[in-house]
Amino acid sequence: SKISAQLVKELRERTGAGMMECKKALVAALGDIEKAAEEMRISGQAKADKKASRVTAEGIVEAYAENGTAVLLEINSETDFVARDDSFKTFCRAAAKAAHDAGAKTIEEVLVAKMENGETVESARQNLVSKIGENIQVRRIKTVSAPILGAYIHGGKIGVVAALEGGDTDLAKDISMHIAAVNPMVVSGDEVPADFLDEVALLGQSFVKDPSITVENLLKQKSAKVISFIRLDVGEGIEKKEE
């Protein structure tokens, strides 16, 4: 049966599962999204069904880009109150820079990275935990390298870095902003099965700031090319126990 890309995207947002996983579940459920979501939940693939997205972990995503390399770091707290705390934000910024400067690729490498005051990220984290009295975890890191990088953080909750060849940082930031808003799955339509529409691919989408042109045409105008992008959403896939 023909399953629309929109339906797959919707199930993907609800469950946090992979694209092909969602498509398979929808095919099996004959396009019934409720049934597909339920089956996925039962089989343990649903990392974050609608409820989980409401009770999901708090925190922020921080970005640091310099010298052709960028880092996105997700650091979680138990409450949004702490996520807005200045000392928490300062720690996150310092941790992202330390991770970047150390060339960290894993959380283990982030934790041993040294901050500018000589303290490791892990010891700074422990000090902050004792000071704030809330569990704080450095959860995920994503990195990307490219000639041109532009980072965009939306409300501290969604972080994106677009990696370009050609163009400039401002263009890369605009592309990142678009990715934060529209959440494409891939850069180009070549990366998805033929029966998928262009709407899941970045290049085929109408540019958020000027819907009269596609992202692909915008890039052509600037003689630029998107090599890749990284994105983190706070609390993605965390299931919290409900009271």
Explain what this protein looks like in three dimensions.
The chain is of the alpha+beta class. It has three domains: 5-50, Ubiquitin-associated (UBA) domain (Helicase, Ruva Protein, domain 3, Orthogonal Bundle); 58-145, Tetrahydropterin Synthase, Chain A; 148-233, 2-Layer Sandwich (Tetrahydropterin Synthase, Chain A), CATH 3.30.479.20. It has ten helices and eight strands. It has helices spanning 5-15, 19-28, 33-42, 50-54, 80-83, 86-101, 107-112, 121-132, 169-182, 215-221, and strands at 58-66, 69-77, 137-145, 148-154, 158-165, 206-207, 210-214, 225-233. The N and C termini lie far apart (40 Å). Mean pLDDT is 88; it is low at 45-56.
Protein traits:
243 residues, alpha+beta, Tetrahydropterin Synthase, Chain A, three-stranded antiparallel beta sheet, 10 helices, 8 strands, 39% helix, Elongation factor Ts, translation elongation factor activity
